[in-house]
């Protein structure tokens, strides 16, 4: 017991010296080992994690193994457990070379653990860095993981992490008619919640499966954590509020390399549903966008295959467009605290072949297009084609956005930005 206490004390001292420093010295839930270690000791554990699941400079899996925690299985999301797979690339199951632990992909042939996957597991842990944007698929993976835990009666612990886009709420609210893995619930593009707050909401609003919604078991309570009536527990961040600036210490996925890309992502990801390059295949993903047909007096770049983007649009072609990479992160975070439609609208205005600007699905029905899935409605592309102003488009979002904000308030764990 003394040896365990010594190890924990050493790790806490190490974390305090090496954790990501911000304005308020924020600590992620995973870094608060003294809070959750007593709850998981003696249990066999399954962990949903990726390359962002760090405790200081050490991965959570390695940290817990050194503390004697029996990790039976690791689950990996989009981009895989080590975070190197391309966007949308299906990842198979394998044995992790470093730890020898089986890794089961939940972004391949299946999206949630089975009873067989969890047969030797007493307790599940979820620890993945989110960026607070609806079409970033980790919240969809969270939902599927929660459903599996509740349906199969497995206690779930969520180690919360700060949201770098947690300082505002904006965008069209998803119409569930257009539900997909890049948008599963009626939330706006930017929802202003940490991943644990989001988990509280989808459980509290009964947005899960019928069987998962029916479970109301309580799990153990830990000091400074938040218990819920949904058979899961949250380990909160320390010193975080929705007014906090948080710069991620590690890129959350291969194509979000820095804070500029993370701040721009809610606005520039819409280009994924168009014929334009959104910067994949460059080192300025979601910070540059363009197409060979745009005016040649604009910024130029040529996308090519690279790690994390081996296949994408317009590779090897000289594109003309915009470069937003030089904009300071602080400025981007404060640009009206809202999604910027001006770049999408300007690109459409300048694009010569307007009928091919939005990528049409094979069915020929734009309701089934990827752009519609990203927007969460079938109106945005039509509003842009019709020449609606940004303010007119934003006004159309307002009724549902206001209703969402009321729901959101019920599930916040930290001081809000307003």
Describe this structure in words.
With about 425 residues, the protein is of the alpha/beta class. The chain has two domains: about 1-235, Rossmann fold, CATH 3.40.50.12170; about 260-410, Aspartate Aminotransferase, domain 1 (Alpha-Beta Complex). The chain has helices at about 1-20, 35-40, 60-65, 140-150, 195-205, 210-215, 260-270, 330-335, 340-350, 370-375, 380-385, 390-410, and strands spanning about 45-50, 55, 60, 70-75, 95, 100-105, 125, 155-160, 225, 230-235, 290, 300, 320-325. Helix 4 (about 140-150) packs across helix 5 (about 195-205). Residues about 1-20 have low confidence and may be disordered.
Evaluate the radius of gyration: 21 Å
- The tally of beta strands, per DSSP, is 13
Shape: globular
**Main sheet, how many strands, which sense, barrel?**
8 strands, mixed
How many discrete domains? Answer: 2
Estimated share of beta-strand residues: 5-15%
Number of helices: 12
Q: Would you state the CATH class of the largest domain?
A: Alpha Beta
Structural class, by secondary structure, is alpha/beta
Using the coordinates shown, work out and report the CATH topology of the largest domain: Rossmann fold
Series of secondary-structure elements, N-terminal to C-terminal:
HHEEEHEEEEHEHHEEHEEEHHHHH
Strand order of the largest sheet: 5-6-4-1-7-8-10-9
């Amino acid at each position: 017991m003394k040896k365990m206490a010594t190890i924990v004390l050493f790790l806490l001292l190490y974390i305090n010296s090496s954790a990501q420093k911000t304005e308020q010295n924020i600590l992620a839930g995973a870094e608060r080992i003294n809070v959750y270690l007593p709850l998981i000791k003696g249990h066999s554990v399954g962990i949903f994690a990726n390359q962002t699941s760090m405790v200081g400079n050490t991965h959570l899996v390695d940290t817990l193994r050194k503390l004697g925690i029996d990790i039976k299985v690791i689950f990996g999301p989009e981009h895989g457990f080590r975070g190197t797979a391309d966007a949308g690339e299906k990842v198979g199951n394998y044995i992790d070379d470093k730890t020898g632990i089986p890794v089961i992909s939940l972004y391949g042939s299946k999206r949630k653990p089975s009873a067989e996957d969890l047969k030797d597991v007493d307790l599940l842990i979820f620890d993945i860095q989110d960026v607070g944007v609806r079409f970033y698929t980790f919240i969809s993976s969270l939902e599927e993981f929660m459903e599996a835990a509740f349906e199969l009666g497995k206690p779930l612990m969520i180690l919360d992490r700060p949201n770098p886009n947690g300082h505002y709420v904006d965008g069209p609210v998803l119409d569930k008619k257009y539900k997909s893995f890049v948008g599963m619930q009626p939330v706006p593009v930017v929802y202003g919640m940490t991943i644990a707050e989001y988990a509280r909401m989808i459980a509290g609003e009964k947005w899960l499966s019928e069987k998962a919604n029916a479970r109301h078991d309580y799990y153990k309570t830990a000091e400074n954590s938040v218990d819920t009536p949904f058979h899961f527990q949250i380990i909160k961040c320390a010193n975080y509020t929705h007014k906090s600036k948080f710069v991620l210490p590690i890129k959350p996925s291969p194509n979000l390399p820095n804070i500029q890309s993370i701040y721009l992502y809610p606005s520039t990801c819409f280009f994924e549903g168009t014929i334009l390059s959104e910067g994949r295949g460059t080192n300025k993903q979601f910070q540059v966008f363009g197409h060979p047909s745009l005016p040649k007096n604009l910024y130029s770049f040529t996308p090519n295959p690279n790690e994390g983007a081996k296949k994408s649009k317009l590779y090897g072609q000289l594109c003309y467009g915009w470069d937003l990479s030089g904009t300071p992160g602080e400025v981007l975070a404060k640009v009206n605290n809202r999604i910027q439609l001006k770049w999408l609208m300007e690109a459409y205005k300048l694009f010569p072949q307007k009928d091919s600007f939005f990528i049409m699905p094979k069915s020929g029905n734009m309701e089934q297009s990827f752009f519609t899935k990203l927007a969460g409605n079938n109106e945005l592309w039509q509003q842009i084609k019709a020449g609606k102003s940004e303010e007119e488009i934003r006004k159309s979002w307002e009724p549902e956005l206001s209703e969402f904000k009321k729901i959101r308030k019920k599930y916040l764990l930290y001081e809000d930005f307003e």
